[in-house]
Amino acid sequence: MTTVSASVDRARVTELRDREEAAYRARTPKSAELHERARRALPLGVASSFQAYAPYPLFMTDARGSRITDADGNEYVDFDMAFGVLAAGHSHPVLAETLIHRVANGTCYTFPVEDSIILAEEIKRRFGADLVRFSNSGTEATMDAIRVARGFTGREKIVKFEGGYHGHHDDVLVSIQPPRELMGPADAPHPVPASAGVPASRLTETVVAPYNNAEALERILDRHRGEIAAILIEPVQFNIGVVPPLPGYLERVRELATAHGAVLIFDEVKTGVVLAYGGATEHFGVQPDLICLAKSIGGGVPIGAFAGRGEVMNVIEKLPESTGAGTGLQQTTIPGGATRVAHLGTFNGNPLSMAAGVAVLTRILTRDVYPGLHAQADRLTAGCQAVVDDFGLPGYAINAGPKGCVMFTPERVTNYRDFIGLDDELWEASFFYLANRGILLPPGPDDQWTLSVQHSDDEIDRYVATFREFATELAA
Length: 476
Ligand SMILES: Cc1ncc(COP(=O)(O)O)c(C=O)c1O
Description:
Oligomer: single chain
Largest sheet: 7 strands, mixed
Bound molecules: pyridoxal-5'-phosphate
Distance between the termini: 30 Å
Strand order of the largest sheet: 4-10-9-8-7-5-6
């Protein structure tokens, strides 16, 4: 662990935070008004609870390239990029043209289209997968991948990691950011529901492990020998800021999954086609059995996908009579006599999403764009780190590929429990300060910026300069 010896004047942080929140309110009366109205029609005034934050979310009207405009006409350089959906940027001209053509020629057939083959072939190439299926969101992708793993192994339990977010179905709404008093021992965390309404019976199927601790995972797998269908992991934990895997960790998780006959699922909803051309799978050189994709593969259109090894994916056609010798996998027997795993969905593979995916993957996020994205991200991280160093802020700047943040905590975060110490107030002060000056970040310290192919070096320098102004005022 690296420790930065730094501190801030608490009273000054509070003062800046309050001043900047007041300025935010003064600049955005239309959003406040819309939110008041929205609360009478939508719980929390939003369509997804992730969109709600205090004092109220910005309501947006337009976006193009790297810019987004709110209901009061304020323009921002968008570093949120829809929680990481938009590595292609807003309404990329190639995508816009594709979608206009699609909208004029039918957006839903529920008959297959050739674009689904082209997109599946592209995903196969990028991720070393044999077979692909499409869904409409990351939630569906992880839900379906888990069912496939259960069908393949004939087992019911899954392992997920504390602090990891994989969507909003019951199996994974567990131990996302559990309260300290409920989380249990560090090396054998208790499963803590992240929502009311998750049946207690589901919790018995989700085993929680600490991220970045291979020894603890090994012990947990030993305790549940022969029971674990899948190990579901986000290769970089992107729902607690940016927490990369320690050297050798993912390799060890791969070995353990194989040794225990569990299907290794990489949740690449955020990392896929963003971290690298072939996502985290390529970036870290570790091959999972299944991957889950969503967000950036659609360039802003709802889409999801899961893909992987043919013998696993093939349970959608037919369950194996017996499973791979030497892998420890057990004979699959399904109560009720089902002979294959259901994977369904009216909108799966719809022409709009498929056309978007093909345009994004074959014409926008091509292999040649990644070095530029990485260079810009490194520039932004280095710029923010210089500010942190110059002003002795308690924190550090970090990125993994084109996604990064300033973690306002003096110690390097390696898992969820380290993240709990994050300085929320300092983060809020910086969020409002930057937003008030046209630099928009995701509205939560657990998320991170995402760069797109439409961001410029000037915009990155503007972010750094504004962050430096913030640090200067903080120190004043
Ligand atoms: C890693 C990860 N997996 C799954 C999901 C769920 O995706 P969706 O919101 O499209 O259902 C998310 C969403 O933020 C995510 O970050």
